[in-house]
Every structure is written in C-alpha cells, then in structure tokens.
Write a structure and sequence with these properties.
1 helix, alpha+beta, 28% strand
C-alpha cells in the first residue's frame, strides 16, 4: 500500500512540476479583456501563445504578440497587440489610414476606422 501511495505522490509532483515548467517557459495563457483586437480576437477570448516563437527570429510587422505591461510590477497584466512597426520604421496615421514608411497599410482585420492623426513616429532599433 505504501508503495502505491508513494508512486501516486511522485506522479502528482512530477505532473505539477512539468505543468509549471511548461507554463513559465513554453506557453503564455492570456485572456483578452477589451475589444481592441476585434475582429481578430474578441473580448473575453482566452488565447495560448508560444514563448518560444521569437527565440530564433525577430517579430515581424503583422505578427500578433502577447507581452507583459511594462508599467505593472507584478508582471500579471498581459497585452495582446499586432505589430505595425519594427525598428527603423516611421509610423503615422493620416486621415484614418495607417502609413508605415509612407506606404498605406491594408488592414482588413480592423473592425473600426482609425480616427485622427498621429505621428510621424520613428520606431527605435530593437523596438516594435
């Protein structure tokens, strides 16, 4: 009986340890709190993202990424956003259209029209 209980305890401890490693090293589990990514991801959706996606390559324009809020010291607040500019790009909004390096972007995935003007903003190297 003791061997059976010990076997179960070992199995449960191993499963918990494996789940912890997978959750902290390989995947991120996030809930989207707002509609800022609609029509791609709806408010309230739960998503899983691979933390390994950018181990061997850099993010590219158009990628949807999950990242921690830099202003949250707990690291628990996650953002889900689409990259529109990479290092060296100039991003601006004019008359409701997003321009990257002077080129109007085709963004059929956006639910609502962008309002107002913004920029130009030069994206620093190593930033997105």
């Amino acid at each position: 009986m003791k061997k059976e209980i010990l076997s179960w305890v070992k199995t449960i401890i191993l499963a918990v340890l494996l789940a912890f490693v997978v959750d902290t090293v390989f995947i991120v589990n996030a809930t989207v709190p707002t509609g800022s990514m609609e029509n791609t991801i709806m408010a309230g959706d739960r998503i899983l993202a691979l933390r390994t996606s950018y181990w061997f390559s850099d993010p590219e324009r158009g990628d949807v990424v999950v990242f921690e809020d830099p202003d949250d010291p707990t690291g628990k607040t996650l953002y889900v956003k689409r990259i529109i500019g990479v290092g060296g790009d100039t991003v601006e909004v004019q008359d409701g259209e997003v321009l990257v390096n002077g080129q109007v972007q085709d963004e059929p995935y956006i639910k609502e029209i962008t309002e107002g003007d913004f920029g130009p903003y030069h994206v620093p190297e190593g930033c997105y």
